[in-house]
Each structure stands twice: as structure tokens, then as C-alpha cells.
Amino acid sequence: MILGQTTRKNFTQNPKNDILSGLTVALALVPEAVAFAFVAGVDPLVGLYGAFMMGIVTALFGGRPGMISGATGAMAVVMVHLISKGNEIGIALDTPIDNLGLQWLFITLLFVGGIQILAGVFKLGKFVRLIPHPVMMGFVNGLAIVIFLSQLGLFKETVNGEKVFMTGAALWTMLGLIALTMAIMYGLPKLTKKIPAALTAIIIVAAITILGKLDVSTVGSFIRDGGGEGLQGSLPTFQDQIFGLFSTLQGHWDLILSTAFILAAVGLIESLMTLNLVDEITETRGNGNRECIAQGSANILNGLFGGMGGCAMIGQSIINVDSGGRGRLSGAVAAIALLCFVLFGAPLIEQIPIAALVGVMFMVVIGTFAWSSFRIIRKIPLSDAIVLIAVSAITVWKDLAVAVIAGVIISALVFAWKNATMIRARKRIQADGTKTYEIWGPLFFGSIQNFNSKFDVKNDPDNVEIDFVESRVSDHSAMEAIFNLVNKYEAAGKNIKLKHLSTDCKNLMYKASPKFKEVIVEDIDDPRYHLAADPEKFTKPLSEYNI
């Protein structure tokens, strides 16, 4: 009974809000999916099919109720080279194949899905917890800037076959409609929260342009200007022809597999980061590993039924959450409504002014950007400030995956450097003349040099004791440093004792050489932590180690 109640709660917490927010998201998905299809160099319907299949699978089976997935720019950019290369080869074949690049994309998505499912099965989704807060802030700031910049392309119109920015009355009309959309989204929640502000704004602005017969850019004109024929389409069909095209991949498997790994990584990073952000907004917790499996399954479905694939979408996810969408029903409604637009509602949806959708996305930008970063930038450590700015800049310059990986690496290096300088050695002489080194701080690959500099083998007395009670021996490099130190003291003819080593550390040293039983002092208060090292590396005699 409890399980059933939990399942229903995940599916919909508030049916009205979920349905209305899902419709709002569906409207916002249309130009995004079409635009990203143009970026990748495929037909707009391929982008719309991809958004539908990503949305419905992740909504029903993903790890984060209320999160929206679809065709994304981050993945579209990666697809461009694969599609163009495939099309070139398709034309050059003795029997030319039209759109071979698109067929290659479908094949690649099968591998993308497999990689992402394996990531979920092996529980790699948990590593999103390793992303530091400055990286998260840089991520949302950079993504807000990217969303804003992506909307600027919608301010262009076709003049004499060329795309140019609007001027004059067209520009002022566009700006006025955008301002009206944003004003409605800002003011309506102050009056009532029973209806989604974004959906209301889109309907009002669309009614003004349609009834007023204003000459503005619409979803339909945007598709036609990009070379598409319109939204009208049929249900996705099974792409059985791709299984007969594996022979065309001879000599190009490196391109397919490398693209698959990059797409899988970009998709998972963006999805898990979005999941983390929605977790913070809703003060709930999603399941990263389940999301990995759902994303992978959706991408396999895309490959089999002719979609361009994708991942979680932060802009649409925030629209959904802000509009009251919390359950799985909101994502399912968004996906099904998008398919209905393609099947039945194309003529109506094509009349929606682009200005209304741009206004919605501008409000998303304002809500996404971490404005508090300006306030705290001078209060946080310099290294964190550098990471925040770097991640924001790299997100805009390159893409999300590169930015997050770079931010984590920078943060890890800073952490390692700080810990490397924390190693200390308190020195004292006991009553019997034994010199004791009391080690404090972590002993790992980064702190070995400082650790070695604490000892004066040449001038130390004949009896030396090293106490590790306030230190932690962390890795193989630390073990090698201890081996090296013992060897030096014994080579100098001096007696050395090691105290308070952890149980696993002692066991590894005993395996390396029985003589360590004479060096290590057994104490009942020895540490109980585990050493991050490979036991097989310490099974040789001490004389065989390069120390």
C-alpha cells in the first residue's frame, strides 16, 4: 500500500499543475528541438521525434520526477562532424546512399545508450556528488549565458536569402512582445499561482499577434527559414535499414565509437548536473544511477526509431518546476503534447510568435543565473572564485562537459595542493635519548616531498621513533615513502620504529618484507581506516623495490 502511494505521488503530486506546466514546456520545446536539429544538420522532425522519445522515457522511468529531457545543443554540436562525414562518404560510394550521416547517427545512438546504461548499472551516477559548489555555480551561470546567447539567433530574419538581425519596426515589435511576455510572467504569480505564468503569457501574446494580424516571426516561419517544410509529421517509424549499413562503417569505427563516448559523457554530465540543480530547487533528492539508465534507454529508442537523441534540458526543467510541475505526469504530458503538435496541431503551433518563447527563455535565464555569485565572489577563497569564473567561461566558450570536467580537475588539484602542505612533524627527545617524530596530516602522493624533508637521517640519534597516530597513510606513494625512509635509517646503522599504523598498512608492509615485524610497534589503539592501495604491489621482497 505504501509503495503504491509513493508511486502515485512520484507520478503526479498535483494533476492540474503537472498538466498545465507540461503544456507550457511542450510549447517551449518546439523551437529548441527545431533549432538544435538545424545545428546538427538534420531535418526538424528528427529533432522533434528525439525530444518526444527522450521526454517520455525519462519522465516515466528517470531518476528525477519533474525533470525534462529532449534534444540539446550540447549534444547537437558533437553530432555535426559525424553527420557531415557520413554524408560525404555516402555520396562517394559506388552506390550513393542519401543521408548516410543521419543513419550513422542512429547507429551511434545505440552505442551511446549502451554506455549510459552501463554507467547506471555500475552506479557511476553517484560521482556527481564530487562536483564542488563553485563548479555548480559556474555551471548555472555559464548555462544561463549560453541560453541567453542562443536566443539572439531568433532576432534574425531572412533578407535576400541571408540571415540578418532585425531592424526598425520588426525589432521594436519583437522587443515589445518579449517585454509583455516577461511582464506577465513576473506579475501574474503575484496575483495568482493557480495557472502557470509562462503558459498564460504565451497564450496572451499569441492571441495578440494572431487577432491583430501582426507581421512577426513565428514558429512556422522559423522552421521554413531554416530549410524545413513544417511541423506536420507522422509517428516515428522503426529504422530497420540501419542494420544493413554496418558494412559502411568499415574503417570508420573509431569515429563512431569516439563520438558515442563523447555524446554519452556530455549527456550524462548535463543530465546529472540538471538533476542536482532541480534537487536543490525542490529540496528533494533524485536517483542519479536510475537517470543514467533511463537516459541510455531513451537514446537507444532514438536510434531505433529515428530521433536525434539528447539529454536533460536545464531551461525546460526550470520552466516545469517554476510552473508547478513536480511529478512524472508533467514530463509525460510535455512529451505527448509535443507529439500531438507534430501529428495534429502543427498549423496552430506554427502561429505562435517566437517573441513569446524568447520572453519565456529570458525569464528562465534570469531565474537560472546565480546572482548571489556577484555578492560572494570576494568572500570565498580565491581558488573557488577562479573555479567559478573558469567554469562559467568554459561553458560559454566550449561546452558544459568540458567546463565541468575542467572545474572538477582544478578543484581537485587545489585540494591536493592544500593538503600536500598540511603535513607536519613534531619532534621531541625522550628520556632514553630516542628521537620521536609525531606526524600530523595526510600522507599521500602530494605530501611525500614535505614528509621526507622533516627527517634528518644523518644527525638523528641511534634510536628513532615515528608516530603516525595523527596522520593517515593514504596511498601507494605514501607506502613507498615509508619504505624509503626505513631503508635510509637502516643503511645509516640506526634503529627505527613505526607506531600507530593502520591494520591494512601494517599487513601490506609485512607482506613486502617480514623484517618489518621488527620495525612496526603493535599498539591496541592503532588506526582502523583502510588504505587506498593495491595489495599486489606489495608482495615482493623489500630488496626488489626501487627505493
Automatic annotation (TrEMBL):
Assigned keywords, A-Z: Membrane, Transmembrane, Transmembrane helix
Membrane topology listed for this record: Multi-pass membrane protein
Cellular component per GO, a single term: membrane
InterPro entries found in the cross-reference section: Membrane-Transporter-like, SLC26A/SulP_dom, STAS_dom_sf
Keyword Methyltransferase: no
Keyword Transmembrane helix: yes
Main location: membrane
Pfam families registered for this protein in UniProt: Sulfate_transp
Segments traversing the membrane: 45-62, 67-84, 104-122, 134-152, 164-188, 195-212, 255-278, 299-319, 331-349, 354-374, 386-417
Protein's UniProt name: SulP family sulfate permease
Organism the protein comes from: Winogradskyella wandonensis
Lineage of the organism: Bacteria, Pseudomonadati, Bacteroidota, Flavobacteriia, Flavobacteriales
